[in-house]
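Model it.
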Amino acid sequence: MPTRTAPSAKHVPRPRWPWWRRGLLAALLSLVFLSVVYYSRHRVQVNRYARRTWATLTSGGLTGREKTPLLAGYSVHGIDVSAYQGRIDWPEVARNRVRFAFIKASEGATLRDQRFARNWREARKAGVLCGAYHYFQPNRGGQIQADLFARTVPLAPGDLPPVLDVEAANFHDVAVMRREVARWLRLIEAHYGVRPILYSNHSFYKRHLAGHFDNYPLWLAHYEVERPAMPRNKWIIWQHSDESHVPGIRGVVDFNVFQGNFSALQALRIPEAQPPTPAKNRRLSSN
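Modeled.
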């Protein structure tokens, strides 16, 4: 008898998703991937906006009572502020162990910070040791920027040295940028009788400034690290966060520590023996 074989099971193809479902899945995966990439590049800003949104939903906004713990291992803590922080309750700031503050005074060739005068007056009245800073625009000359700072800031003996904030990368020739930075530093040192402090972030300083301004005290910005990558003998102030909270300020503020005790910080102040030359409407000499 012929051998009979069982009939083979018929292959039933699996139903395919409709095209619109496949497209939706691809779109969702792309969105997740792009979100991860964006967050990895902008996590500081994303976290900041998330905190503000949460504060708005839970308490109607930042209250000005939020408080970031002080960085361990340092005894002298300070902030730097500009008009961005709005109206500051300086007595409340001072009650929270803020010992020093650098206040934005000017930027480029024409911009004066609209809250500088009030911040300067109220911070000093609250007993906070104060200094002022200028944001350097590399597409403008060093002398015109020094003139603006000198006309804006009434630094006096007992104040902290002036600061030049150099971090804007919109320049075409690094040698020209360095030359104009050096001009600002030289003019301001001659004007106030004290060596200015140079501020920059870690990557900008290493790429464009290192080795050219070693005679100036360095205020270094370097975030999300346990300690600055540069040796301790290279910097005097470390800006360790740009999203901290201090009672008295409704919003985020930069947090800094000084490398040393308060007496060492006081030793940096403009000396009594060399009061500043009156500078209102006076052009600084580059000679």
